[in-house]
Amino acid sequence: MRLRDSESDARFRKEVRAWLAENLPVLGPRPAYGDWPAKKAYDQRWQRMLFDAGYAGIDWPAAYGGRGATASEQLIFLAESAAAGAPDLGVHFVGQLHAGPTLIAEATDEQRDFHLPRILRGESIWCQGFSEPGAGSDLASLRTRAVRDGDHYVVTGSKIWTSYGFAADYCELLVRTDPDAGKHRGISWLIMPMDTPGIDVRPLRTIQGESEFAEMFLDEVRVPVENLVGRENDGWRVAMVTFSFERGTSLVRELLTAMTMVEELATLAKTLGHGQYHSGPRAGQSRTAWDDDAIRREIGQVAAELDAMWALTRRNVTRAAGGGGVPPSGGSAFKLTYSEAIHHFGEVAMKVLERYAISLDALPLGAGAGLPVGRHIIEHLHAFAISIGAGTSQIQKNILAERVLGLPRER
Amino acid sequence: MHFDLDEDGLALQATVRDLCGARLPLETTRNWTDAASFDRAAWSALAGLGAFTMTQPEARGGLELGVADAGLVFQVLGAELVPGPLVAAALVADLDERVGAGEAFATVVTRPPAGSGPARAGGPWVIPHLDLAADVYVVDDQGVWRTAAGAVEGTPVPNPLDPTTPMWLADAVPAGEQVGGPELARGWLLRGSVLASALLAGNATRTVELATAYAKQREQFGRVIGGFQAVKHLLAEAFTRAEVARVAVDAAAVALDDAGTSVGDGEGEGFDDGYADPTFNPVRAIAGARVLAADAASRNAKTAIQVHGGMGFTWETTIHLFLKRAWILRNAFTTPEEAADTVAHSLARPKWMAA
Ligand SMILES: Cc1cc2nc3c(=O)[nH]c(=O)nc-3n(C[C@H](O)[C@H](O)[C@H](O)COP(=O)(O)OP(=O)(O)OC[C@H]3O[C@@H](n4cnc5c(N)ncnc54)[C@H](O)[C@@H]3O)c2cc1C
Question: Same structural domain for residues A296 and A397?
């Protein structure tokens, strides 16, 4: 077992670090939280810079325009980006992390040649139209219909929780093409251009106060048959390929950012006053959250939990590099434990920020950027996005119990 | 980076597991409650595989492997719930080849912190396996001291929590002979901690296996209890805790190995600058591993008892033995509480944070 950089890893790390140091200042300041049009432009600008520097699609095969980096290089790139405070994928999340890889695995040459370069250059944004009001955890019960009409599918139905729906140029869409087949058998995976007539995207406001996701109504939307990925009625299998990417390593950058946020929280804990102490033996004493043994240890516990997730990531990535992707034992274990670690992080953040946990923004207190309380509260709320999105924690436990431990299946 | 067990690692684990099955099965070892009942031949056989000399140089009869490999072996020993002063043997092998070879026993104790009341300044000392040991090694931040076990006036602890980890209390341990300085002491505390955590991670893994096997065969309401979602989720959570504890222990052991051998010139390796991967810090990684492994072992054993129902509450089943061993090991060389504090103190200010 080896974790240290090899000589070529060390060279790559140095190169990435130098590039980030030079280019991050050029990118300019981060847009205000929740300003999605500005965020989209910012994410696209960054993606183009990455593309021009040869860092786009870091783990995609070179044959499809990616860098074809090794697993170590991929992790080094993510770790350096997080440490430097570089933007994450943002609106490119779906395109880069699951639609793109799914196209690489399942699409025709024409589909790949058209879409992959656009995704890499940051020109096309993707969203995921899987969930429906009536089909969440039981995704295979989805009802959005696609009826063949000549060389088009005519799609009618509705999708919900569509992240980046407002920004997207394309949607990876699951539709029912054969209503008479068994529920897993009649599904197809389509590429839907978002400018097709009949699509109505209505933003939904999230508990984080912004509109990351949307509901999407589809009224006789005509999608060319050539946009089918995989065979007709074989979409469930293709969706499972998508999930293997979504649940595999797509949260790694988030994890690395969270690891630096714990450091920020520890720094805040050392400066913020803590406790009421108007009466009793400590009355009048000044104490920080860091002086409180229970809180300080809990910060240490959360850091240990996140460090372990980083170790699990490196094991998962090593296994995936051996072929066959991240096994469900590793992917679901990561998703489940990472959710819990972020919920735990949020609990501790509330204890540290205490009476200052009152805004989803930075507090106008102190010099510079102010007191960054909002970020930590948003991360606490965001813990639910992780424990609900892409298969809830309960569903991950079902997967582990059934596919890994071999216990009887749910009916 | 390659962070998974290779064929050698798996083979090593299989060899140790086979020997444990043949010579140290739990039905037998659960009765090794004192020196008289302890099977020294089986212990020597284990030592014969190199279980305690994994990291020793060949010249000292060792395998010249890393702490990471020793950790893999100790995960198996933890899963098999092998009794005896395992971690002490692996540490004292640095100084006494007979202990590494399983011909003699040693026990290692850390100096107790001063308390108040009955736990008055510097005492009492807690010493496991005093009857078995030839020597007692004392570790504190100044160094390592050796005292003949016979020179320690210990009172046996009645009704030991973990029946096969008999304990003694002593008001004092004679100063003895200094056999190592602060560097050895530091090395022992780190290696001892990570090996104890490896035992805990193995312990956590085995109780999930036992509970899962039981859940697949015990029937109630006309179906196996493993079909009930409440039970499935308990087991999935326990499985996950064990997996996470194992990777945390492996990463900590690798971090210790990496820190021990200076690779390259340090340039650009992520150590000498602010962007260093903080998990490469062995002190932090080893502390973090204890936080997770102690939690996983204790909670998984509890889960396993709950899943066994009334059967789990009997002395006759083995699961309570895993729980009790976990409760002893959690405090070996560090405690999860102290370890959490250690991790907290390792946190640096992030580079991007505004001043
Ligand atoms: C932030 C966010 C972003 C998302 N982005 C997208 C996106 O871009 N595209 C997309 O298609 N979807 C997206 N989703 C949807 C997500 O995949 C679903 O929310 C999720 O699969 C759960 O479905 P549901 O919301 O219908 O909840 P339900 O399935 O109704 O679940 C409600 C509760 O019941 C529990 N439950 C359900 N079934 C079982 C069972 N068999 N056993 C035990 N418990 C069960 C669940 O765990 C949960 O606690 C997003 C969700 C979130 C939160």
Answer: yes
